[in-house]
Amino acid sequence: MRKLLVYMKDYRKESVLAPLFKMLEAAFELLVPLVVAAMIDVGIAGQDKPYILKMSLLMVALGVIGLVCSITAQYFSAKAAVGFAGKLRHSLFAHVQGLSFGELDTLGASTLITRMTSDINQVQSGVNLVLRLFLRSPFIVFGAMVMAFTIDFKAALIFVVTIPLLSVVVFGIMLISIPLYKKVQGRLDKVLGITRENLAGVRVLRAFHREKQEEESFEAANYDLTHMQNFVGRITAVMNPVTYVIINSALMALLYTGAVRVDAGILTQGQVVALVNYMSQILVELVKLANLIITVTKAVACGNRIQSVFEVENSQEQLAANASQDTAFSGNVDRPGHAGRGQELPLAGQIPVVEFRHVSLTYPGAGAATLEDVDFAAYPGETIGIIGGTGSGKSSLVHLIPRFYDATDGQVLYRGRDVRSLPVKELRSKVGIVLQKAVLFEGTIEENLRWGKEDATKEELQAALNTAQAAEVVAGKEDGLSEQVSQGGRNFSGGQRQRLTIARALVRKPEILILDDSASALDYATDARLRKAIGELPDQPVVFVVSQRTSSIRQADKILVLEDGAVVGMGTHLELLKNCQVYQEIYDSQYQDRMEVLRNAE
Predict the structure, then answer these.
(1) Bridge partners, 378 (sequence order)
(2) Lowest-confidence region among 132-141, 357-366, 453-462
(3) Based on the domain organization, do 380 and 241 belong to the same domain?
(4) β-pair partners for 431
(5) Domain hosting residue 59, numbered range
(6) CB-CB contact of 84 with 77 (8 Å)
(7) I want to staple 546 with a disulfide (CB 3.0 to 4.6 A). Which of 178, 367, 516, 602 is the partner?
(8) Which of 268-282, 394-408, 457-471 is predicted least confidently?
(9) Is residue 266 domain-resident?
(10) Same structural domain, 209 and 329
(11) How far apart are alpha carbons 206 and 410 in whole angstroms?
(12) Residue ending a domain, choose from 279, 312, 345
């Protein structure tokens, strides 16, 4: 939590002025009982109405000045707290954006959302209250005790006993509740995770009629959260009644002592009233202090949780530091006997655009490797098809190229250099990727396309749309490129979203184009036109096509067949139809003409 206070450095002035004005308010408040005592002992006792009026006006003046000081303090404390929370939230978001997919998978989306919203709001409230009350409440408590000593030493001894007792209660409860509030926030993460999962998959839940089971799962998590909150609430709820018992006991002792000493002529009635007022002030301020401590306890727990996210380092940066800064390419890579898209066979020693050297990948916490000993090369202008069953590691393989994940063994090379030795921004500027789930962002179609290249011309945007077979999508909208896109692209069909995301990737004219099962919602005719248009791109990027359809990759220069993370076949469509059993099974599940195709090829 302390490390987060660095975000308060721009609000030093407000952090000083807020408590200062609160102290001024407290000082004026401590004078009020003395004014009341003088009014009783002098004005009322002597029936001096002008004096009573004068004292009344003085009390009003003290109240107005205190109100002005309070409002001023509130302004500065709110400005500091809101500014602090804004900078903290911005920094946390930037830090999360810099984490690799591995860290994001480990932390979880629900946890990060909680940290960035609920936790930061709690910290903001804690900072606000600390600036307003952290000095004011103790100042009034001890100030009231000092003022009591100026009135009567013996009566003030009651204050000396009462204040330590109250402090033990307040700080004891605080020490018990701090770790419990951390558990509460952890269980809140779990509830949010279940809620987010259910909302994201609500259609699947209804399709499989799993509402009842998910309701039971949510109720169980919600019960755990409620039970823990109730438990912490009972502990903190003890604070108010215990403090009231102590204060009221002290008031009874004070009234008894005061009555005896008034009867003895040692104290006046006004002084006893002043002592009672000071005791009441202590009660009010300690209740405020107790609530402050509860809020601060929550804020500290939340701050520690936020700090734990900041302490998560990007594992890719650590790996990059250990990677070779200049990985030389040596040796030839086997390549099928025909060139892609009219390209000649690579010269001996030509450096591939992308090369996998005995690459393996194991996700954090996974029991087994997702990819094992993947070894191949992709040359300029080639199309690499990747196919395999569900969970065979197809997406994991292509995610290694832009460093969404880093290989746990082996090397992934870009033009002969280990991708871990390249700045991530530079590497990803060379890559255009369309993920399995087509995601569009709220804004216009043009704004979404410019994610690929901010300064793209209208001609470049139109060319990308034409290649992606998305020109008709834009033409069919009343506002064309200015058509509004709702959050997630919900106002477009699945096929339209896929074509627009492909166009977004093509705008940047990447050297490496990755299509990760990005044509699954397209009909076969549109898919064929898309593949033909990509094959005719003048820049001739290396294209990786991940697909479940053999029709989408049959024209690829090289096809990788994956099974359980291992490459069980590599070659052209015809070569694999002859020699790869897994590829044959996939093809036969989609077509019934394998033998005829092989006969025609001969």
Answers:
(1) 354
(2) 132-141
(3) no
(4) 512
(5) 2-312
(6) no
(7) 516
(8) 268-282
(9) yes
(10) no
(11) 44
(12) 312
Q: Are 225 and 129 in contact (CB under 8 A)?
A: no
> Residue 600 CB: number of other CB atoms within 10 A?
9
CA 275 to chain centroid, in Å, comes to 52
Task: Determine contact, residues 534/513, Cβ cutoff 8 Å.
Answer: yes
Q: Do 543 and 370 contact (CB within 8 A), yes or no?
A: no
The pTM is what?
A: 0.69
Type of residue at 14: E
Residues 534, 467 contacting (CB under 8 angstroms): yes
Last residue of a domain, one of 297, 312, 327: 312
Region 45-69 average pLDDT:
87
The phi and psi torsions of 334 (rounded to 5 degrees) equal -60, 140
Q: Are residues 37 and 180 in the same domain?
A: yes
How high is the mean pLDDT of the chain?
85
Report the distance separating Cα 23 and Cα 229, nearest Å.
Answer: 34
Residue 118 token pair? 């609920």
CATH number at residue 71: 1.20.1560.10
| CA-CA-CA-CA torsion sign (41, 46, 51, 56) | positive
Residue 432 β-bridge partners: 513
Residue 384 has pLDDT above 90, yes or no: yes
3-state secondary structure of 514: strand
Mean pLDDT of 269-279: 85
For 135-195, where are the E strands, in sequence order? none
Residue 450's pLDDT band, with cuts at 50, 70 and 90, is very high
CA atoms within 13 A on the CB side of 423: 3
Q: Is the pLDDT of residue 337 over 60?
A: no
DSSP lists the bridge partners of residue 544 as: 384, 514
Residue 146 and residue 79 in one domain: yes
Nearest to 572 by CA among 593, 588, 553: 553
